[in-house]
Specification:
The complex is a heterodimer of chains A (245) and B (67). Chain A is an all-alpha fold. Chain A contains nine helices and no strands. The interface between A and B is large, with 40 and 31 residues.
């Protein structure tokens, strides 16, 4: 496996890999998101209690899951960056962070727009909501820490360490609805034993989760390409890239 | 289709404002990060091209001054 992975430590090979993967991620994103949104908005049945307001679930749950998923990927990249001193992994940390922050912001905003009609308040200082807000600040913290250093080597190391320390927030978010009395409802789809959601709502939701995951992948690849180009812009292979295209 | 007419679809059973607020900001943020990332690619490639052109001009000027 190491033999197979090793070439991708080189910037130009990693760049090519991004280019190869990008179209697949993009296609999956577009197809799943278009179908998922139309299905969720127009064809899924209305909820017996929340009526049509529950349709926010089709973006709220995917963005919330991906806000944590993107953070996990960022933390894994940070571990790789620190342990094996791979520069590309550092760049991956910085490529994921803004995308993760956007997805987290979506989870918070859609949650507020759902909370207003259902709970009667845009925001409450509830365990789930507060820990998710801290996740947003962690993403922003990683980004600003990286940009605060002139020396990009030190910047990458500091940002990676913060990313890893922040992982402690993930179980807190996940279990917040069990550990504390909270307004936020408990897990719906991550409980496999009991069916808490009807298939007619489950499948469009799954599709939207895939769409969000593919979107995070797509934009991360674009941003990773950017970071690689930015750091390698004086290298000959980048010049050759221009001549070809 | 769960809705009888287009206006029913927009109204979302009275929850239209909240539903469309969510989906609207979601679309806005997703498109925002996507296009800003694509724009970065273009900006970086342009600056690389400019740098290459500049080095080419310097090389040319040096050669001409030697002649």
């Amino acid at each position: 496996m190491w033999k197979w992975l090793h070439p991708y430590a080189k910037a130009d090979r990693a760049y090519q890999l991004c280019n190869t993967l990008l179209p697949y991620f993009a296609v999956v994103t577009v197809v799943c998101m278009v179908v998922g949104w139309v299905w969720g908005l127009a064809y899924a049945p209305a909820d017996y209690q929340q009526k049509d307001s529950y349709r926010i679930i089709f973006i709220h749950v995917p963005s919330a899951i991906l806000s944590m998923g993107a953070y996990s990927s960022m933390a894994i990249a940070a571990v790789v960056a620190l342990v094996w001193q791979l520069r590309n992994a550092e760049l991956a940390v910085i490529a994921i962070a803004p995308v993760g922050a956007c997805v987290t912001a979506i989870a918070l905003i859609t949650g507020a727009a759902w909370g207003k009609p259902m709970w009667g308040a845009w925001w409450v200082w509830d365990a789930r909501l507060t820990s998710e807000l801290i996740l947003l600040f962690l993403y922003l913290g990683v980004l600003s820490l990286y940009h605060a250093f002139e020396d990009k080597k030190a910047a990458g190391r500091a940002a990676s360490i913060l990313a890893i320390v922040g992982v402690i927030n993930l179980p807190i978010i996940h279990f917040s609805v069990e550990w504390w009395n909270t307004l936020h409802q408990g897990a719906t789809i991550t409980k496999f034993d009991t069916k808490a959601i009807d298939p007619s709502m489950f499948w469009p939701l799954m599709l939207n989760i895939v769409a969000f995951a593919a979107f995070v992948g797509t934009v991360t690849l674009i941003r990773l390409k950017n970071e690689i180009l930015q750091r390698e812009k004086h290298r000959p292979w980048v010049r050759q890239l221009l001549n070809r295209g | 289709m769960q809705f009888d007419s287009f206006s029913d679809f927009i109204a979302m059973g009275g929850y239209g404002f909240y539903v469309w607020l969510s989906f609207g900001t979601c679309a806005l943020i997703l498109l925002g990060i996507l296009f800003s990332s694509l724009n970065d690619t273009k900006r970086i490639l342009t600056s690389v091209q400019q740098q290459a052109d500049r080095e080419q001009r310097i090389k040319q000027a040096k050669q001409e001054s030697q002649v």
